[in-house]
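Our working data are protein records whose layout never changes between entries. The record below serves as our worked example for the rest of this section:
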Amino acid sequence: MKKTKIPKKELQNVISQNKENQKIKTKKTKIKLLNRKIIILLIITFLLIILSIWINISIKRNNKIELIQTSPQSKSQMMGYIIKTKQGKVIAIDGGTVEDTENFVKNINDLGGKIDIWFITHPHKDHAGVLNCVIEQNIDLNIEKIYYTANDLSWYLEYDPERAFEAENFYKTISNDRIKGKVEEVTLNQIISIDNVKFEILGVKNPEITVNPFNNSSMVIKLKVNEKQVLFLADTGTESGKKLLQNQGDKLKSDIVQMAHHGQAGVTEEVYKKIDPKICLWPTPDWLWDNDPGTGYNTGPYKTIETRNWIESLNVKQNIVAKDGDIKLEIW
């Protein structure tokens, strides 16, 4: 067989082309390896982000609190909240009327029968009535500390004489030998920490506001746990709400808000816009929720429907209403 001789120049071209092809092949291989490394790195990064989120959620869940909104046991409006911390500490806010005592005490007993901190926002009987009853009837309940805000009795006698007896009853309660050494009046911006929860007092008595006197001297409390914030407005009225907005506006933003004065005739829409809540707590009985004194929907003198419209415009995700019974909410 006759051998074909490849010209030297052509051979060099072939060799050169092979080298070039090898370089291209090597480059493609390196790119594939780099792409694999990038994909693996992205997967690892994604998994680390997921793990970090999961750990963060787990920590928050382990640090959760339970909040109970108690329900009215009579036709009266009322307000009562119970908070259980991570380590089982119990904090009460108000409680309701005398008629609400049995249900409120039952909820406390279910948590161990001890109140580590009891906030009384103002002396009205639909807020302080349970405490008054517990002390007057000597009900077996372990109370460690009571925080309150209130004006002098003479102030109530001057500016709201028809209901001054409610302040008188409250002062009689907190001077009882059983608890008088455990009572302390809060100060503005005071911070009270217990377990994994911090309470900041954003509002106290306002002796200069003499209209709607009891309500406009309500305690305003901000609760903080993890990054969640809950604002309790108690019965804060229009006038003290404006003062709150002016003096504490930068602190009002909260995830959850307790609706002022049972959701009617409390603070203005501007306050709720500043709070911008995701969840609203309504200490509101059924007749007040619908503003129905027995003559039909929204036929009464109350402003609940107007307030509900404000909240709807803020795209609130959930309304928790006392008319629906005792409701427990986990916050983390």
Summary: The first strand starts at residue 65 and ends at 69. The longest helix spans residues 8-62.
